[in-house]
Amino acid sequence: MEADSVFTPMLYFARRSAKDDTSIPLPVVRILMTTAVPVAAMDRLIDNLDRLHSSPQVICRVLTLLQDDDYETDELADCLEVEPALASAVLRLVNSSYFGLPRNVASLKQAITFLGSRSPRLAVLSFGLLERLTQDAPAAVYEDFWRRCLTMASVGFRLAAHQPELAGDEAYTAGLLADIGILLLAQSDTTAYVKLHMHAAHGAKLIDSEHERYGFHHGQLGARLLERWNLPPLLAGAIAEHHESQTTDDPLRLNTLAASLMADALWTPASPHVGDARRLLDAAYGIDLDGFITLAVACKETIQENAALYQVTVPMTIDCRALLAEARGQYREEARMAALDWDSLAVVAEEHEQVSHSIRGPITND
User: Fold this and answer.
1) Which of 258, 91, 233 is nearest to 171 (CA)?
2) Which of 38, 185, 258, 306 maximizes the CB count within 10 A of its CB?
3) pLDDT tens digits, one per residue of 159-172
4) Residue range of the domain that includes 340
């Protein structure tokens, strides 16, 4: 994340038209215009949290080991066993429905074998970091954080199936960690931030409020934390821009943006992000209205499974009927407005033709 990065004011996706097979600029979500990102201010905030004075050594060591596809299982197991809570979390993950194994695995070394070369990163990043960062989080923020992060992880993982170039565990991890900056803000400026968080809906309003108070927002702060811990740059970039992506060329950033919009839509059916999410899924993934609802229903089940995996409670449930009604209503309204636009264009074209004809005047043989 560069200190002088500037975001553009509107994001467009090229969608293929079914009628004329031409690209249509499709506005998806408002993008916050920011000035230079104050890295020094973010570093001071991170430094003020005693728990974060040093990087998570076990996590960093594991990630270093996993950079080599031929890592030694024994060495990785020895590393994980230094933190029993993390080792236990790895066992919970491999025995979850995420892997669907026919029998339980009790050995850490056997669990690592089942996880393969990529999924240990998911286990270490998600369980290791979240266990540290959710400690002492205010209750009002804690519940909303888990609700959103589990939703984004579930959506991102399923959308990755439509992106051959993106691994599902990478998308899952990005969704899970996208809002870690909220935890940092809530623990460093508790009274003021909890009030701000409760009065600002997640999305553009929250981003604006955070930027006004701190000079940066939670996406940028979370990305800065991952940078300081030397975690993958692509992961940090996706988290920094999960509300305001500058580009859709990066599969992970596109996936995380879509997951963020879907999280807003799933938990707040009356949100304008229902339309934003539906249009983005259509434009970028070819997912129509029926597919949109199918994704919502599937994620509703997965969220509860993941909540059990992380041993947290998600007290609310997604109202798929309300979401369907809102999505259909917005879809019909967009179709009506599009029809009105075409009618207006037709009237203007006819009037223009009449004016042009009167200016030219009748053609005579004189």
Assistant:
1) 258
2) 258
3) 999 999 998 888 98
4) 329-356
Query: 14 lies in a domain?
Result: no
Residues 102 and 157 reside in one and the same domain = yes
CA gap 291, 287 in Å, rounded = 5
Question: Which of these, 12, 61, 16, 4, lies nearest to 246 by C-alpha position?
Answer: 12
Say how many domains are in the chain: 2
CA 81 to chain centre: 31
Helix (H, G, I), strand (E, B) or coil at 54: coil
The answer to the question of residue 365 being in a domain is no
CA distance 313 to 146: 8
**What pTM, to 2 d.p., does this model score?**
0.74
Q: What are phi and psi of 283, to 5 degrees?
A: -70, -45
Q: Could you say which DSSP state residue 126 is in?
A: I
DSSP code of residue 28: E
Q: Are residues 343 and 225 in the same domain?
A: no
Q: Going by C-beta distance under 8 Å and a sequence separation of 6 or more, which residues neighbour residue 48?
A: 188
Domain shared by 334 and 254, yes or no: no
Q: Are residues 269 and 182 in the same domain?
A: yes
**Which among 151, 148, 143, 208 has a CA at the least distance from the CA of 179?**
148
Measured distance CA(260)–CA(273) in Å, rounded: 9
pLDDT digits (tens, 9 = 90+) for 183-210: 999 988 999 999 999 888 787 889 999 9
SS3 202: coil
Residue 19 maps to a domain: no
**Do residue 338 and residue 274 come from a single domain?**
no
